[in-house]
Write a structure and sequence with these properties.
With about 300 residues, the chain is an alpha/beta fold. The protein has a single domain, classed as Alkaline Phosphatase, subunit A, CATH 3.40.720.10. It is about 40% helix and about 15% strand. It has an 8-stranded mixed sheet with strand order 4-3-5-1-6-7-2-8, sandwiched between helices.
Length: about 300
């Protein structure tokens, strides 16, 4: 009976699973088109996690402030990025969550792969993701085209997730946004770009699930976007189609079901930090909160 009891107990000497985070950023996804697209990998994450297609960002609904708010956990009034020129940013005061991890838990391994240049390089006043991140890989989607750059990012991310030991990772994929601008949000090409990105999400998930220590790891998968868009494919305004985004948190430590009230884009960074057991310091002045974690919400 003692042996049986031990086998059923969570306190029989087995080491707790190592908490890890993968944030996948898909640029410029409109939520109603996401719902129409064939996205089996994202659908599976939704089924096993916490989801909202009513999450909100704030205008101006362009990528600079959107990604800045997502990764830092504060609104534009604090990080000071209000457009796609990042000059004058306050990232020294409000760093991205990977840099924050390097400051408070430097023993953790951080990783980012980015193909919109300001996210990872000095282009246009960047980088948003600082050089203190342990491994940061940059590809130039503006030069290569985002279809090719996303594939290079994907291949590099799969190799790193498969062969290294990251604790927190951010993978950015930008082609959806470009296709939306080129064809409109209602075009078949735009929906197809979302479906392609879903396949890429599936490849990233496979890389994680095939890790040799996966059964001893507690991966939180977060997937979100920086802004929506109008029917014509543009964005930057205050319409519901532009401000509404999706927010997805999945994994063993995630809640299950629809999140209510709807989250905000600034909740992403705080959720990632909280899963990694980082106590948020009030002096950081973060605007977000942890959303979708089973033990906290």
């Amino acid at each position: 009976m003692i042996v049986a009891g031990c086998l059923l107990s969570i306190s029989c000497g087995r080491e707790p699973a190592v908490k890890k985070v993968l944030l996948i950023g898909l640029d410029g996804v409109r939520v109603d088109i996401l719902a129409q697209a064939a996205t089996p990998n994202i659908d599976a994450l939704i089924a096993s996690g916490a989801f909202s297609d009513r999450a909100q960002t704030r205008p101006p609904t362009v990528s600079g402030p959107g990604w800045s708010s997502m990764l830092t956990g504060v609104w534009s009034e604090k990080h000071l990025v209000t457009g796609n020129n990042f000059e004058g940013n306050a990232y020294h005061r409000y760093p991205d969550f990977l840099t924050r991890l390097e400051q408070v838990k430097p023993e953790l391994n951080t990783f980012a792969v980015l193909d919109w240049p300001p996210l990872g390089t000095t282009a246009s006043g960047g980088p948003l993701v600082s050089d203190t991140v342990d491994v940061k890989l940059n590809f130039d989607g503006d030069e290569l085209g985002y279809t090719e750059a996303d594939q290079l990012s994907l291949t590099s991310a799969i190799e790193h997730l498969s062969n290294e030991d990251p604790d927190a990772a951010f993978v950015y994929l930008g082609d959806i946004d470009v296709v939306g601008h080129d064809y409109s949000s209602l075009a078949r090409e735009y929906q197809a770009a979302i479906e392609t990105a879903d396949g890429q999400v599936g490849e990233l998930l496979d890389a994680i699930r095939n890790r040799p220590n996966y059964d001893r790891e507690d991966w939180l998968i977060i997937v979100s976007t920086d802004h929506g868009r109008t029917d014509a494919g543009g964005h930057g305004g205050e319409s519901p189609q532009e401000r509404t985004i999706f927010y997805l948190v999945s994994g063993e430590s995630a809640q299950k079901g629809e999140l209510s009230p709807a989250p905000n884009i600034v909740d992403v960074a705080v959720t990632a930090l909280s899963h990694l057991e980082v106590e948020v310091d009030l002096s950081w002045e973060l605007d977000g909160s942890a959303r979708g974690l089973a033990q906290r919400d």
